[in-house]
């Protein structure tokens, strides 16, 4: 699996208001981009990827909207890899790998279980000013 984002030939960026409708728009945009890139929506990684994306956008809407009126979703793919990130301007950075061990960890626990179960990776990257972050998910295709 290629994990270097700069080597992924397909990319799309979507910025949305941090509102509940962003979840649907992010998923629909992902489906459209994957289809345009020739990635079958029936690929075994696609449904979990869409669920992960939905959970990350939902978390941003629920927890970051006060400080981040917009969120950005970055989609990227290559022949053997799908990557996406959800970015907001809230400074809180969740401990992704701790979410797996939490009982009732909710959305992030689900994100991490699916990501790791598929052999993927997850990372939180801070903005340079420390006032925002992106959660990046990389999954094998």
Automatic annotation (TrEMBL):
The keyword Transferase applies. Residues 50-141 form the Histidine kinase/HSP90-like ATPase domain. The keyword Acetylation does not apply. It holds the Pfam family HATPase_c. InterPro entries: Anti-sigma-factor_SerPK, HATPase_C_sf, HATPase_dom. Transmembrane segments: none annotated. Gene3D superfamilies: Histidine kinase-like ATPase, C-terminal domain (3.30.565.10). It comes from the Bacteria. Keywords: ATP-binding, Kinase, Nucleotide-binding, Serine/threonine-protein kinase, Transferase. This is ATP-binding protein. It comes from Streptomyces mirabilis.
């Amino acid at each position: 699996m290629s994990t270097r984002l700069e080597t992924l030939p397909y990319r799309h960026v979507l910025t949305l208001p941090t509102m509940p409708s962003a979840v649907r728009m992010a998923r629909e945009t992902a489906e459209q981009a994957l289809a345009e890139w020739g990635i079958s929506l029936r690929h075994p990684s696609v449904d979990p990827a869409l669920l992960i994306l939905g959970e990350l956008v939902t978390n941003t809407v629920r927890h970051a909207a006060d400080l981040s009126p917009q969120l950005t979703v970055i989609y990227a793919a290559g022949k053997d890899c799908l990557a996406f990130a959800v970015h907001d301007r809230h400074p809180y950075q969740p401990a992704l790998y701790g979410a797996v061990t939490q009982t009732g960890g909710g959305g992030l626990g689900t994100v991490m279980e699916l990501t790791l179960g598929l052999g993927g990776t997850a990372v939180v990257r801070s903005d340079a000013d420390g006032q925002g972050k992106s959660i990046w998910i990389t999954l094998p295709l």
